[in-house]
């Protein structure tokens, strides 16, 4: 209900502003509205796990794969040309799935996490650089799948039984891309508040910060790097580290193919393993639409 009200208010505000801007014949409109525009106002964070992606990551030295399937889309965008700022309302729907590889191209699914929600975004061009932010209201739940069950023994593998893992949360992030560096660097800081969570042993607050950098190598080819650290409390206060180094074939803010290497350390991103710590290097690819 709240989301519908916000969407309605934003729609009428945008339409009203656009009509006012066009009232004088021959003048350039000061504001405009776009329904389902191409691209995203807030670009997904490179080293943040909980982002919509389409791709695959293979952990080196382990028979484990992560398959990401999903997308985020801006449904409504409102641009004020004179003041150089934009607002948007969007939606997220994606999964990140833990699998293992077997012979004959079999990939049993061990665990899968489902993420969906709405997002509100802001971006502004200032003398200092591009300033942007994103507010998400989302739900994530986690489940063991048939690949975690041993049919020969008739039991769940590793004595890990399915648990109820569900959380609803508000996530906000603020980012800056300094104009002195030609917007090639993005620094950000964010926080997450879980207003409902099962199991209750997961602390309701998390905070994170990160850096991203890219450099055009040749025509539509870009080298990039991303780092994020997240502080959280489950059984103890701990830091989750995530690093990604890669190359993107395609315009930096557009469609493309990413080939990358990554490093992960900290509590597992999968809800069914929420209390288990992991440490691994991986190789993967992403397809950006």
Structural class given helices, strands, pairing?
mainly beta
* CATH architecture term: Beta Barrel
Whole-number average pLDDT?
Answer: 90
The poorly predicted ranges are: 14-26
Please bin the fraction of helical residues.
Answer: under 10%
Oligomeric state: single chain
- State the separation between the terminal residues, measured CA to CA: 30 Å
Main sheet overview: 12 strands, antiparallel, barrel
**Any idea of the CATH class?**
Mainly Beta
> Tell me, what's the shape?
globular
What's the gyration radius in Å?
21 Å
The fraction of residues in strands falls at over 45%
SSE order: HEEEEEEEEEEEEEEE
- How many domains? The number is 1
Helix segment tally: 1
The count of DSSP E runs of length 2 or more, i.e. the number of strands, is 15
CATH topology: Porin
Strand order within the widest beta sheet: 2-3-4-5-6-9-10-11-12-13-14-15
- By CATH's scheme, which homologous superfamily applies? monomeric porin ompg
What would your notes on this structure say?
- With 289 residues, this protein is mostly beta strands.
- It has a single domain, classed as monomeric porin ompg (Porin).
- 7% of the residues lie in helices and 59% in strands.
- It contains one helix and 15 strands; from the N terminus they run αβββββββββββββββ.
- The protein has one helix at residues 2-21, and strands at 31-35, 55-59, 65-80, 85-99, 109-125, 129-144, 149-150, 155-156, 165-178, 185-198, 205-218, 221-233, 237-249, 256-267, 277-288.
- It is globular and about 70 Å long.
- The protein starts with a helix and ends with a strand.
- Mean pLDDT is 90; it is low at 14-26.
């Amino acid at each position: 209900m709240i989301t519908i009200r916000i969407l309605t208010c934003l729609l009428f505000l945008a339409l009203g502003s656009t009509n006012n801007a066009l009232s004088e014949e021959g003048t350039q409109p000061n504001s405009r509205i776009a329904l389902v525009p191409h691209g995203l106002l807030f670009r997904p964070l490179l080293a943040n796990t909980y982002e919509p992606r389409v791709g695959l990551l293979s952990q080196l030295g382990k028979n484990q794969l992560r398959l990401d399937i999903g997308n985020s889309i801006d449904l409504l965008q409102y641009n004020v040309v004179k003041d150089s700022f934009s607002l948007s309302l969007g939606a997220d729907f994606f999964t990140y799935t833990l699998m293992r590889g077997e012979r004959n191209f079999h990939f049993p699914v061990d665990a899968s996490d489902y993420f969906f929600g709405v997002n509100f975004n802001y971006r502004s061009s200032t003398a200092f650089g591009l300033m942007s932010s994103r507010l998400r209201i989302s739900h994530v739940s986690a489940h063991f799948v048939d690949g975690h069950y041993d049919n020969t023994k008739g039991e769940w593998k590793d004595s890990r039984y399915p648990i109820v893992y569900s959380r609803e949360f508000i996530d906000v992030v603020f980012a800056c891309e300094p104009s002195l560096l030609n917007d090639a660097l993005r620094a950000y800081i964010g926080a997450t508040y879980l207003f409902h969570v099962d199991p209750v042993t997961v602390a309701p607050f998390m905070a994170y910060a990160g850096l991203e950098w890219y450099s055009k190598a040749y025509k539509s080819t870009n080298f990039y790097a991303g780092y994020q650290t997240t502080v959280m409390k489950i059984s103890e206060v701990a830091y989750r580290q995530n690093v990604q180094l890669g190359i993107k074939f395609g315009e930096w803010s557009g469609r493309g193919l990413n080939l990358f290497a990554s490093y992960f350390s900290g509590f597992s991103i999968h809800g069914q393993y929420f209390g288990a710590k992991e440490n691994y290097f991986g190789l993967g690819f992403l397809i950006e639409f």
